[in-house]
Specification:
heterodimer, A: 516 residues, alpha/beta, Rossmann fold, 3 domains, 6-stranded mixed beta sheet, 17 helices, 20 strands, 32% helix, globular, B: 342 residues, mainly alpha, two-stranded antiparallel ribbon, 13 helices, 2 strands, 73% helix, 1% strand
Chain lengths: 516, 342
């Protein structure tokens, strides 16, 4: 592996091609009911640059980008592209002006092939000439340094390949302005670095890139300028060369961060122990193959690894929706003999990978979602009847835990922002004093403050005897918050040798199968 | 309430429009429709009788129960198109018990109704099993089972169940002690079918059960998001299987009660398509089983009113099917608008 991330000194930015800003948004104001999502926001982006927008969840970044992409109409303010005043009534208008957007949730249709996803909606003619299209697509991909198996089913692609396909889709539509919302949320450090290298190539070729992100290292390493938003307003607009990530973090939260990490408690009894543990993947392969692993009370153990190395299968087998072979002891009982419901009852708690698909029922209310999974517990249920006031009490508890913003307990959960949904799902998992928390990216989509709050609470619980197994693709997050790291590579789990436990580069090498 | 008002005004409006096309006077049609459902004569400005209202309630009875059957299946995320077939085998089972088991009175009725429920369940279980263990789509399998039920019924009433010595393809009438006759005096009061009372009670119980019990909660969850339900420790497959079986059982009950309460025997045309009308009723009902009651009332009233309209103005009564279809369409449009609006 060459390097996980280009070092600061090697950062060479091309000279600004023009001083005049290419994209100019002025005085943008957007209200939703009585919430002002954007208050007189100005944004200037230079042609051929990578421009970052940072801020907490709900700071108004996504709203601003959706306005630029024509999804929302601003209440006031103007947009001009290359000096020309624009008024977008729909994304179609924005696309016609060369603007493309990749949202946090990819818009790839898993049943279709790569090539079909690429051309969908922009086939060019009524009759599709496969050979010409494949040739054009291959040329486009190779200009980016991408490689695709065009006939592969899109659903089988890794997240990084899907991300690349999304970018290729924009270029197929001849977008000059690329908006990426949290592009690296699902990527390994290596894939993230590769993505930014590609974006740099595109910017050098004259395209303009806007990145919405929570990861300040990326901003510092790869972007020329950064706009910081807070409470719907722009609070700073700086050149990355003239600022530090500490200063950015303070600007984002509007003050200094004062989260302290709880000291690790002394590990207690063994809570979970795996021996000769293997799990079959969807394609009949051996997705997980762990020789021995132990998790003790009070421990926070992070599972690092590139997506697709068996993390999903490991978690699914531990919570009981996928069978395993071998031994998996939870205290003195074999997990395999317990149903999902029994495991939950015995103190296992889950933060699933995909909160919308696996964690929530979108059409249901906040209150009904709050008791999902807890609905058979006392005092919510006495076995055959559910107690309304107990349901409300539990909902209040869950919403209060990480100050989730909800308009009412009867509002559909789908009306919450992604960050609030994530807070809600984590708070629900921690409800009812679980003994073992199994969390897949518990801070997914959360900003610095939200992420710190979530981990601080997990650590606080662990100091009181809980233990946590946390899977994340964000190595920095794990290194910051976990007592111990286990790396998964092709289903095997291994621990970094003593002394290299918190060495970013050693763990990074192990993630791609090299020796530490 | 707003929705109901909107729908009523819509269907009256459409009616007027359609007759303009059909060449009858809009006023006559609306008047005869109103008279047909209310029993109030506008010409004579007096109340003529409870007949039309009783008739609407009679038509409502099987729609309420079958509507609940389809509704329960919808709650577990399955579309039970097979209610029609399940209703028929329910009727067949009831008539079989009533004619051949030789128990009369209350015990006989209970036995016949129980047989109807079991038969309906048995008719739904193959679809549930194929869905849960093989992933076969329930819409296809239940439609197929409808055909099997229809032909099976035709065979039985032309053969083993046929009334001896009769030339008509129909079973014999069940004995009077086993008939569930309507409550009330036809001349002076509204008459009520026992099946309607059972149906309304079942809807109330179901509404309570779905919201207030953990098992009802799990059933709704398994239909609303099966994957999230798995993560919440809910056995989604079990609910899919038993939800469809319960749906079949309820449809079977509707058939049994229809036989004992209204038809009295099983003949060709036993069900004029209750199982299919109930799909519309269940869709119209919305989120709660309580919605089934007004939805079934609306459907029954439209059927009843259009009968009278045909007699009075010559406008074909099939227009009622057109109106029902339009209502379902409008409701679907309104729901979609809501789910896309943010």
């Amino acid at each position: 592996m060459r390097h996980l991330r280009s070092s600061k000194s090697s950062k060479v930015f091309p000279v600004d091609r023009s001083n005049a800003s290419f994209i100019r948004m002025q005085g943008i104001t957007k209200r939703f009911g009585n919430v002002t999502a954007n208050a007189s926001v100005d944004l200037d982006v230079a042609k051929g640059s990578i421009h970052a927008i940072v801020g907490e969840n709900g700071a108004g970044k996504s709203t601003l980008m959706r306005i630029l992409y024509g999804l929302y109409k601003p209440d006031s303010g103007s947009i001009s592209i290359d000096g020309e005043e624009k008024s977008f009534k729909s994304p179609q208008d924005a696309i016609a002006s060369g603007i493309g957007m990749v949202s946090q949730h990819y818009a790839i249709i898993p049943e279709l092939s790569c090539i079909d996803n690429l051309i969908l909606g922009a086939e060019g003619s009524a009759l599709i000439d496969r050979n010409t299209i494949i040739e054009r697509a291959t040329n486009l991909a190779s200009a980016l340094g991408f490689e695709f198996d065009w006939y592969a089913i899109a659903g089988d692609m890794s997240p990084s390949a899907a991300q690349k396909l999304e970018i290729a889709k924009l270029l197929w539509r001849e977008s000059n302005i690329l908006i990426l919302d949290e592009p690296t949320a699902m990527l390994s450090p290596e894939d993230s670095a590769a993505l930014y290298t590609n974006l740099r190539t595109l910017a050098d070729a004259g395209r303009t890139v806007i990145v919405v992100t929570h990861r300040l290292e990326e901003v510092m390493d790869y972007c020329e300028r950064v706009t910081v938003m807070r409470n719907g307003k722009v609070v700073a607009n700086e050149e990355t060369a003239q600022t530090t990530s500490k200063r950015l973090a303070e600007l984002i939260v509007g003050g200094e961060l004062t989260f302290e990490r709880e000291r690790p408690a002394v590990p207690g009894r063994v809570s979970l122990s795996l021996r000769e543990f293997s799990v079959q993947g969807d394609r009949g392969d051996r997705a997980v193959d762990i020789n021995a692993f132990e998790l003790r009370e009070s421990e926070v153990v992070g599972v690092a690894g590139v997506d697709g190395n068996g993390q999903k299968e490991l978690i699914e087998s531990l919570i009981g929706i996928r069978p395993y072979l071998g031994v998996a002891k939870y205290y003195d009982r074999e997990l395999g003999g317990l149903s999902v419901a029994q495991r939950l009852e015995d103190g296992l708690a889950i933060v699933p990978e995909d909160r919308q698909l696996q964690g929530l029922i979108g059409s249901w209310s906040v209150a009904d979602n709050a008791i999902l999974g807890l609905h058979r517990r006392q005092p919510i249920s006495n076995g055959w009847r559910m107690d309304r006031s107990a349901c409300i009490a539990v909902t209040e508890d869950i919403v209060r835990r990480f100050s989730t913003k909800v308009s009412s307990f009867g509002a559909p959960i789908a009306s919450l922002s992604g960050g609030n949904q994530q807070r809600f799902v984590v708070a629900r998992a921690l409800e009812g004093s679980p003994k073992l928390l199994i969390a897949f990216q518990p801070a997914r989509g959360l900003d610095i403050r939200g992420s710190s709050e979530v981990y601080a609470e997990i650590r606080r619980r662990c100091s009181m005897g809980m233990c946590a197994l946390i899977v994340s693709f964000d190595l920095d997050e794990l290194l910051e918050h976990c007592d111990r790291i286990v790396v998964m590579f092709r289903g095997k789990a291994s621990e970094p040798p003593h002394g290299l436990q918190s060495d970013r580069h050693a763990v990074g090498r192990m993630m791609v199968g090299l020796s530490p | 309430m707003i929705r109901v008002a909107l729908l009523l005004s819509f269907c009256i409006g459409t009616l007027a429009l359609l007759l303009a096309v059909a060449g009858t006077s809009g006023f006559d049609v609306v008047r005869s429709f109103f008279e047909g459902i209310s029993g109030y004569s506008l010409e004579r400005s007096e109340f003529v009788g409870y007949g039309p209202i009783s008739e609407i309630l009679r038509r409502m009875a099987p729609l309420v129960i079958t509507g609940l059957a389809v509704f329960i299946a919808l709650q577990v995320g399955l579309f039970n198109i097979g209610a029609e077939g399940q209703l028929k085998v329910g009727g067949l089972a009831a008539v079989f018990v009533a004619l051949f088991v030789g128990v009369d009175g209350v015990v006989g009725v209970a036995l016949a109704v129980l047989a109807a429920i079991v038969a309906g369940m048995i008719w739904a279980i193959p679809a549930g099993a194929i869905k849960v263990w093989r992933g076969g789509h329930e819409v296809i399998t239940t439609i197929m089972l409808n055909n099997v039920a229809a032909h099976f019924a035709s065979y039985l009433i032309a053969g083993p169940l046929k009334k001896p010595g009769s030339s008509e393809a129909a079973s014999d009438f069940v004995s009077h002690s086993m008939r569930l006759s309507a409550i009330g005096d036809p001349g002076r009061t509204v008459t009520l079918q026992p099946a309607l009372i059972v149906g309304v009670l079942l809807c109330i119980v179901a509404a309570w059960w779905l919201v207030r019990t953990p098992s009802g909660f799990e059933l709704r969850a398994s239909g609303a998001n099966p994957i999230a339900s798995l993560f919440a420790g809910i056995s989604v497959r079990r609910f899919a299987f038993w939800g469809l079986a319960a749906s079949g059982g309820i449809a079977g009950l509707a058939g049994g009660m229809h036989l004992l309460g209204q038809e009295g025997r099983f003949a060709e045309g036993f069900s004029p398509g209750f199982g299919f009308d109930s799909l519309g009723v269940a869709l119209l009902a919305g989120r709660s089983p309580l919605g089934i009651i007004p939805a079934a009332l609306l459907f029954a009233a439209i059927d009843q009113g259009s009968l009278r309209t045909q007699v009075a103005t010559g406008l074909p009564k099939e227009i009622s099917a057109v109106i029902q279809g339009l209502i379902i369409l409008i409701v679907a449009v309104m729901r979609y608008r809501r789910s896309f609006a943010r």
